[in-house]
Design brief:
Number of domains: 1
Order of helices and strands: HEEEE
Largest sheet: 2 strands, antiparallel
Number of helices: 1
Oligomer: single chain
Shape: rod-shaped
Mean pLDDT: 83
Helix content: 40-55%
Strand order of the largest sheet: 1-4
């Protein structure tokens, strides 16, 4: 009977040591897993491109709009119509630069 009780205690102790070793390994690996996720996130954000920062971005754009319209006044009432055959044209020129971080 005593031999059987010792085997059960030995078995429980072995399981406890095995679980402690696994938990210890997971705790030790936590740093490396965290760094791996951070590296993957950084790589993904670098693939997106440079991020906008108002302090480091300078832009200079000129926007030109042109359209054809007709205005007429009849009996003191003014009407304005835009020519549908000649649509509005919008042109944007300029540049944007991002200074070093």
């Amino acid at each position: 009977m005593l031999l059987r009780l010792n085997k059960r205690a030995q078995s429980t102790l072995e399981y406890a040591l095995l679980i402690a070793a696994i938990v210890g390994g997971l705790v030790a690996m936590q740093i490396y897993v965290k760094r791996g996720f951070q590296g993957r996130l950084r790589s993904a954000s670098d693939d997106i491109g440079e991020q906008f920062d108002a302090d480091h971005t300078a832009s200079s754009y000129t926007t030109t709009r042109s359209s054809t319209s007709t205005e007429s006044t009849v009996a003191g009432i003014s009407t304005s119509t835009i020519d549908a055959a000649a649509p509005e044209v919008v042109t944007r020129t300029g540049s944007e630069t991002v200074s070093a971080w």
